[in-house]
Design goal:
This is Zn(2)-C6 fungal-type domain-containing protein. One of its GO terms (biological process) is DNA-templated transcription. InterPro entries: Trans_reg_galc (IPR053230), XnlR_reg_dom (IPR007219), Zn2-C6_fun-type_DNA-bd_sf (IPR036864), Zn2Cys6_DnaBD (IPR001138). By secondary structure, the protein is mostly helical. It has a domain of about 240 residues. It is built from 30 helices and no strands. The radius of gyration is 46 Å and the shape is elongated.
Amino acid sequence: MTVEQSHPHTKYDSVVSQNEAPAQQPTADLTPVRFRPLSIADTGSTIEARSSNTPPITSSKMLAAQTKIAIPRQRVATAPRYNRRVPRACASCRQRKTKCSGDTPVCRQCRELRATCSYPEGWSERLKKQVETFSEKAQEYENLLKDLSGIVDSSAAERIRSLLDKHGPDVDYTSNNSRSQSVTPQDDVPENDVSSSPSSIGSLEAIDRVEEDINRSAHTRATGYMGKNSEITWMQRLHREAEQRAKGLPGSLEPGQDPKIDNAVSLHAVNYHLDDLDISMPGPVQLYAMPPREVADHMFEAYLTTVHPFYPIINKPLFSAQYRTFFDSAARPGDKWLAILNMIFAIGAKHGHLIDAPWRGDGKDHLVYLTRARILSMNGDVLFSHPDLQQVQVEGLIAFYLLASDQMNRAWRISALAVRSAITLGINMKSSSPATPDISKEARYRVWWCLYTFEHMLGIMTGRSTCIQDGVCTSPFPLPFEEEQLQEPTAFEVLTDTILRDERINNVMASACIRQMPLHPANGKDGSHHTRAQDTKWLKSLPVNYALFYLYYCDLAVVAQEIVNKVYSVDCVMVPWAQIESRIGELKSRTETWKSNLPTGLDFPDKEDKGPDILRCKLNLALHYYSARITLGRPCLCRRDARRKGTNPSFSHEMAVVTLESARCMLDLIPDEPDALQLYRIAPWWCILHYLMQAATVLLLELSFGTVHMPEEEKNFISLSKKAVRWLFAMSGQSVASRRAWQLCDLSLRKLAQGMKYDVSDMPSYPYTPEPTSTVGSEPAHGQPMSHAATAGDYSAPLQEDLPVSAPDAPPAEDHYIYPNITTADLMNSLTAEAQDSYFPYDPITGEFMRSFFPHSNEDENWEC
C-alpha cells in the first residue's frame, strides 16, 4: 500500500508529527529541517536546491497548504517597545547608559524618573557656532588693526595694510568698522580712500606745503608764510569764495585754476597787518633823553593799568620804586634798565594814541622810544653777548610793542629771540636752586609765562609753529597772588612748599594732563573730562584779582596751544580724518573743563558789574576762550555740510556749529553800537583786532558757503557780519591796520551781497583811495593816500583825523610796595655800601641789589627831565 492509500487526506495532512516515523525514508532533498533557523544564505541555497532537485509537489499537498488559517496575534497590554533609533540621546540617558526615546523637550525615561533632560549640541551645530565665534573674533581683530594703522608709525602701518590686503581686499583703514560719520569737506571723499588725508578737508588743505613764493618781493617777505590756523589764510579763502559768488558761481575757485585770481588773492594781498611799513626813525635820536615827568607818568600808568595785568614781565612794585627813584634823583641807570623803561613808554604812548588821550604826544613818539631801546639793548655788541634776565625782559617788551603796532612778522622774530634767551637762562624750568629766593623764582616763572602766552598768540595769528615745543617747559603756573601779596601767610605757604603748590594749583588745572593726552584718543569725539569739584575748591575760594585771572589765562593758553599742535601741525597730513576728529573731540572737552573750573568772579557769562578791573579780566578770558574754540572747529567749517540726510548730525557738523556759535558769542561781548575808544580802554587793545577778524571771517565764510551748516541762522549771521564790519570801520579812525581789515571784510561782504542778493545799503562806505606814508607812526589825514601793498580790490581809505576826546586821567594805583624813603644823597653815598645794605631793596628778577640799576658814572649825558 502506498503512502497516499494508508493515510486518508484531512485538512491537517500537511502537519507532520514529530514522533511519527515516516513509512518510507524520503530522499535527502525532502528531509525536513527542524528548529534551526535559516539564514538568508541558507534560505537562498535551500530554495535554489529545491528548485533544482525537488520534484514537483503533488496537487494534494498544495491544496492542503492553501487551506491553512492564520491565527491572529494576541494583543499585549504592556507598553510597546521602542526599537527606533534616535538621532542623539539626552545627557541623562547617556549618563545612565539607557536607551533614550528622543522625545522633546523631555524624553520618556527622564519624564518617568523626573530627571532633568537636556540634549547636547550636535557636531554640526557646534561647528557652526565655532565658525561664527571665530568670524566675530577675526572681525574684531581686523577692526583693531584698522584703528592701530592710524596710530602706529608708517612701517608698522604698512605691515598692517599688507596683512589686511592679503586676507581681504576691501579694507578701509580710516575709521572704526566703517567710514567716519563725517564725510567732510571737500565733499565726497571715496570710501576706499586709504589715507583719508585731511589735506583735502576744510582749512587743513595743503597744510604741509607753501603755495606761493614768499621770497619773490618785499611785500611777500613782509607778510611771510601764514599757516592754516591764521585768519589771514581764512580771509584768502573768503576772497576766492566771494569772487565766485559775485560771478553767480556756487563753487570756490581752487588755487592754480586762474593765475590772475591767484596773484590778486595772494597772502600779502589779504594781510591787514603793517609789516610793509617802516618802523625806524629817519633822523637821529637823543639816546638818554626823557619825556617830561607828567607825560612819563601818564604813559607809565597806562602801561601798568592796561598791559601789566595781562603781561607781567616786570616786577610792578620793584620797578615802580625804581621809576620814582630814577626821576627823583640824578643817578643814571644802566642801559638795559633804560631800554625797559623806554619800551614801557612806547607801549603806553601807543595806547594813548588809540584812545585819543589828551596827554598823547605826536604821532611818532612811540617810535622814538623804540629806537632808543633798540640802540640801548639790541645793538650789534649786545646781540652777540650772552643774555641776562634784563635782556629777556627787553626783548619780550619789544616783541609786545611790535604786536601792538601790528608788526606781526617783526614781533614773531623778536619773540623767538626772547624765548631763546629765556631758555638759555633756564627760566623755562622749575628752579630748585637754594641760592635763589622764592620770590625771585616766582618772578622768573612769570617772565616765562609771559613769553609762552605771547608766543602762543603769535602762533595763532600767523599759523606758524612756535619755538616752544612739547616738553620744553616745566615751570610751574604763576601763583594767584599779586606781587605785593607774596609775603602774606596764605601766599607764602604755597610759595615755599612745592608739593602744596602742585596739589592746589598745578595738578588741578585743565591743562594738567594735556601733554599726557594720547596722540589718537579712543572715543575722543565722545570724550568728557571733568576735574573733580573738590580739586578747585581752594582756587575758587580765593579773591578775584589780576593774578588769579592770569593763572587761568595761562592754563587756557596751554590747552589752545595743544589745539595747534594736534590739529594744525604738518604731520596731520598723514593722519586719517577720523583720528583728527577724535583729537578735536578730546580738545573740545578740555576747553569745556577749563570753563567749568573758572571761579564765579571770572565766569564771563556772568553779567554782574564788579568794576573795570574785573571787566577787563572777564572780557580777556572770554575772547581767548571763544578764539580757541573757533580755531578748534575751523577745519570742520567747509563748503559742503557733513550732515547726513535723515540721520543725526555728524561730528564735523557739530563742530562747525560750535565754531559759528563761538563767533556769535564773541561779537555779543561788544555792544551793537560801535565805540572804538571805549573798546580800546577796556579790551586787550593790542590783539582785539585779531579776535574781531577771526569772528568776522568765520561768519562771512559761512555766508559764502550758502549757510549750509545753520541755514535757519542766515539772517542773524548777516546781521552779525554787518556788526563786525561796522566795528572795524569805527576802529579804523585810530588804526591803519583796522582800516585795512575793514576794507577787506567790507569788500567781501559786498561781493557776497551782489551774488546772494543781500541788502548792504545800511553799511558805511568810504571811497577807496591810495594812501600816504611809509612809516607806522604817521598820522592819518583826510584825502591823503595810505601806502598799502595790496592788489586789485584791496586798497586803504583815508583815516579820520584824531578827535581830541576829553577823558579824566586815571588815578595812580595805590603802591603797596614798602620802599624805604631815602634821599638822593643817601642813595648816591650808598653805592659803595655792602651788598647786605638794607637801603637797596632786593631785585627778585635779576637776583641782585638795586645798585645794579644805578651804576656810578662820571659821563656827562644830556638828560631831559
